[in-house]
């Protein structure tokens, strides 16, 4: 065993720990003739490491590890938006908590640090790890809700938000399926409605584009998707009108009549009904 290896092992035995500082290079001590005095050299090295670690604002563990205090301190760092320092302490709590009480919470807050910082992929990954290890934890619904919210926060209007809205909708549906008694029901219902409106709005935008170019086949696919998957879409009268006209343009008279009748029965006062009746004889 080399001198360096021996000394590192001795430090571990003493319980002195610092995750920031590597053992210093002590070759300069040769000048003092201490290299042959193992006891003195060990004492000097311990003092140097203790001094260095004391500058690290409390990231030193001396004696029994207090998971509760470390967790509280990590949360304080998180509130102060000192994300790197918070994550360091959360990881330490996760790995050193022997009670099993704070390790899951540290994992969850570790994920929160990425969420608060706007780091999308790491946040999703870490919430997923929490759920994989703690599917029945009392905060599991929260972790699933946060995954949905990561995607929901990426929705940037109809034109560019459809992909994020689909992912968010899926995760909100998973929340309702896995945790039907979750405390976010009213909020989830509102956000789910927005996701559906964005997805349907994108389908409508593309369908309208094809419709105006009289590319009726492409338009029909979009309109049928809206009518099937989003029956409460706010622009349904216009969708029924364009679907009827598109079917008529494809020489599908039966389908055109079916959409026209549906428009007439559901929205008898709609101006789109009169427009459709003019074009479909």
Describe the structure.
- With 281 residues, this protein is mainly alpha-helical.
- Among the domains are: 1-62, no CATH class; 64-137, Alpha Horseshoe (Serine Threonine Protein Phosphatase 5, Tetratricopeptide repeat).
- The chain has 13 helices and 2 strands.
- The chain has a two-stranded antiparallel ribbon.
- Helix 6 (120-133) packs antiparallel against helix 7 (140-152).
- The longest helix has 28 residues, at 185-212.
- It is elongated.
- The N and C termini lie far apart (96 Å).
- Residues 1-23 and 53-60 have low confidence and may be disordered.
Name of the CATH superfamily of the domain at 64-137 = Tetratricopeptide repeat domain
Range of helix content = over 70%
CATH architecture of the domain at 64-137: Alpha Horseshoe
Rg, rounded, reads 31 Å
The average pLDDT value, as a whole number, equals: 85
Q: Could you give the distance between the termini?
A: 96 Å
Number of helical stretches of at least 4 residues: 13
Strand and helix layout:
Elements: H1 3-14, E1 17-18, H2 38-53, E2 60-61, H3 67-79, H4 83-96, H5 102-117, H6 120-133, H7 140-152, H8 157-178, H9 185-212, H10 216-229, H11 236-249, H12 253-266, H13 271-279
Antiparallel strand pairs: 1-2
Keywords for this entry:
single chain; 281 residues; mainly alpha; Serine Threonine Protein Phosphatase 5, Tetratricopeptide repeat; two-stranded antiparallel sheet; 13 helices; 2 strands; 1% strand; disordered N terminus
